[in-house]
């Protein structure tokens, strides 16, 4: 009786294990089997590698390489164009600076030439003026030997007025005699003053010039024949 029960129990256990094995096998098959519906719906993202040949792959590689070479060539050409543009700009700037420098040098040469001409003309005028004054002094020296009493009194009155207005600075260096050429109108108004043949410091010479201007108008000539438009006066430092 006991053996019979054991046999029945064994058969039940065996049947349960068999059912479990069958169920497990069914679940594994269902899990492994591909879902063709999902694959069909994702054709856009699915690539069948078996359908691409080695030749197509090499062709795509060649196209990519060709495109890369074209891009590098374009880049090289752009860099060359940029370098050429910079070079032309630098050359243009250099030429502009060179032209500017040449223009400035030319203007300086013209200015120096004009200045030299002006200085030369100025020196020539000064020399002519010195020569004119020398001739005037010589003529005045000759004339002084032939002055009438009225002319002598007229010149002395002019010198006296100038000497009264002459304030000589202290400790000045000068020669004993200074020649002064005075231009005047018939009214005695002084129009110009020049110092000639007087070696002294600037303070001494300026003091004498100021004295002449301060004395304007000078004493009027008693007669039109005695009047001198250009008069040469010799001054010594007052005692």
What is the third-level CATH name, the topology of the domain at 148-236? Fusion Protein Consisting Of Minor Coat Protein, Glycine Rich Linker, Tola, And A His Tag, Chain: A, Domain 2
Segments where pLDDT lies below 50 for 5+ residues?
none
Strand segment count = 3
What is the residue-mean pLDDT, rounded to a whole number? Answer: 80
Q: What is the helix/strand order? A: HHHHEEHE
The total count of helices amounts to 5
Category from helices, strands and their pairing:
mainly alpha
Largest sheet at a glance? 3 strands, antiparallel
Estimate the helix proportion, in percent.
Answer: 55-70%
Give your account of this protein's structure.
- The chain is mostly helical.
- Among the domains are: 101-146; 148-236, Fusion Protein Consisting Of Minor Coat Protein, Glycine Rich Linker, Tola, And A His Tag, Chain: A, Domain 2 (2-Layer Sandwich).
- The protein is 66% helix and 9% strand.
- The protein has five helices and three strands, in the order H-H-H-H-E-E-H-E.
- It has helices spanning 2-32, 36-41, 54-144, 149-164, 202-214, and strands at 177-184, 190-196, 230-236.
- Strands 2-1-3 form a three-stranded antiparallel beta sheet, sandwiched between helices.
- Strand 1 and strand 2 form a beta hairpin.
- The longest helix has 91 residues, at 54-144.
- The radius of gyration is 62 Å and the shape is rod-shaped.
- The chain starts with a helix and ends with a strand.
- The mean pLDDT is 80.
């Amino acid at each position: 009786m006991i053996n019979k029960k054991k046999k029945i129990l064994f058969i039940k256990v065996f049947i349960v294990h068999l059912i479990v094995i069958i169920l497990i096998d069914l679940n594994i098959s269902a899990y492994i089997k591909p879902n063709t519906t999902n694959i069909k719906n994702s054709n856009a993202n699915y690539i069948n590698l078996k359908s691409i040949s080695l030749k197509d792959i090499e062709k795509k590689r060649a196209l990519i390489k060709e495109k890369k070479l074209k891009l590098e060539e374009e880049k090289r050409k752009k860099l060359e164009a940029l370098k050429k543009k910079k070079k032309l700009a630098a050359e243009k700037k250099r030429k502009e600076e060179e032209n500017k420098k040449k223009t400035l040098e030319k203007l300086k040469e013209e200015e120096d030439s004009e200045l030299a001409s002006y200085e030369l003309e100025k020196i020539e005028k000064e020399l002519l003026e010195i020569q004119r004054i020398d001739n005037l002094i010589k003529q005045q020296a000759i004339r002084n030997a032939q002055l009438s009493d009225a002319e002598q009194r007229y010149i002395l009155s002019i010198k006296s007025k100038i000497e009264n207005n002459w304030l000589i600075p202290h400790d000045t260096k000068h020669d004993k005699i200074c020649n002064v050429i005075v231009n005047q109108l018939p009214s005695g108004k002084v129009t110009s003053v020049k110092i000639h043949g007087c070696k002294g410091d600037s303070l001494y010479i300026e003091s004498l010039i100021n004295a002449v201007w301060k004395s304007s108008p000078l004493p009027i000539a008693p007669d039109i024949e005695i009047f001198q438009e250009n008069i040469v006066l010799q001054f010594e430092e007052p005692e």
